[in-house]
Amino acid sequence: MTATDVQPAIDVCDPRFFDDPWDAFKWMQAQPGLYRDEANDLYVATRHRDVFHISRESETYCSKYGVRPKIAGDMSIITLDGEEHTRQRRLINKGFTPRRVRDLIPHVRELTNQLVDEIAERGDINFVDEFAVHVPLIIICEMLGLDPGQREKMYRWSDDMMAGDGHTEADDPILLAAATSFGEYATMLIELIAERRANPADDLIGILTEAFDEGGLAKEFKAIQGVSDDDAAKVAEYSSLGDDELLAFLTVLLVAGNETTRNAITGGLIALSRFPEQRKLMLDNLDVDDFLDKAVDEIVRYVSPVLGFIRTVTHDHVYDGTSLKEGDRILLIYPAANRDAEIFDDADVLDLTRDPNPHLGFGIGPHFCLGANLARMELKTVFQELLTRLPDISVPADLVPKRADSTLVLALKDVPASFTKCPVNHAQLGSH
């Protein structure tokens, strides 16, 4: 009898399910059609081909009714589809152009080395709190126009808001903490939005505030569609967003801009510690761009920092033998898709030379991650500098990573790492 012959315990809305879900994923992938989770009133997609197809067909499987199991649609870009999603995505893209990302590389390199300087003489650290969180959080704060000097506060706000995912009871202390943190974050944002209206700036808060206030969405629509000024004015009335929508927008950017990359960095170190031959391969190729590009994508595949999003069925139809009704919800589970043995040879093994690597760690289709290029650059640069300075940094071989209560992101925490002490300041070293 194999592990896939007997149904394991499955509750996709229980954060603890994702602590060690791999046997359950394999069992679900071996079943015909989509797995039906009756307790949570969900279908579950775990095969790569299913997640790929459903993600690309936004007219049949939409986001507007919410992307989390117990939470209705909100006002953010992740719950938009069609032309409205395209227009808002085009605006945000202005902050993530290839040139902007490329220009950030020296800064990310410097930040990484500053962090290594702070820990180099210690030999033991909490890798999440003392290293992994900082670079992505500082960068997204700077891109938004927030003060990175307040990153400890931003760290708390981001974690609290993320932890609130899936909590709906009014007196739930986790939900109350999330609401408190959002309120504090929103209060700061309201002041910054007013400041940007008075003194425009070339950061994401400034870009989005100006665009929303002045019909920037309509301008984008006009440029794309070639419509008249009158029609563009109608679009402006339709597409203008108030401060509530802008706040939701900026909240998503803060959380998504640091949580996923932080977990990819942490999960990457865990993976390199589990596969020492891959660590050696990476150490031997730290100056080889093509290798590092493949290595970063493999780390994202293996780690899969985003766990899952919901899509809602828009009309009755049959998919792969499964009868779906309008309003049915499907949970797309990315870690399962990224370990699908039908697509990936030795799917449970880290292979930094894997090519091709059609992983779904950044999603696929209309909602492909806006910050994918930024995340790739941060991962590449951070590991390049970290492993140059601390080549033997690792976590215990038998480590069972702790996770916060999340069904949205991997949410790794309290990861102990050790390394040979290195008193050399990076200013004395050559740069990549």
Q: What can you see in these coordinates?
A:
This protein has a single domain (15-428), classed as Cytochrome p450 (Orthogonal Bundle). It has a 5-stranded mixed β-sheet with strand order 1-2-8-5-3. It has helices spanning 22-30, 48-56, 82-93, 98-103, 105-119, 127-132, 134-144, 151-163, 173-198, 204-213, 216-225, 229-239, 243-274, 276-284, 289-303, 334-337, 372-389, and strands spanning 35-37, 42-45, 61-62, 124-126, 308-313, 317-319, 322-324, 329-333, 402-403, 412-413, 416-418. The protein has 432 residues and is of the alpha+beta class. The protein has 17 helices and 11 strands. Helices cover 50% and strands 8% of the residues. Helix 5 (105-119) crosses helix 17, helix 8 (151-163) crosses helix 13 (243-274) and helix 9 crosses helix 10 (204-213).
E-strand count:
11
So, the CATH homologous superfamily? Cytochrome P450
Sheet with the most strands: spatial strand order? 1-2-8-5-3
Give, in order, the helices and strands. HEEHEHHHEHHHHHHHHHHEEEEHHEEE
Reported CATH architecture: Orthogonal Bundle
Rounded to the nearest angstrom, the distance between the terminal CA atoms is 52 Å
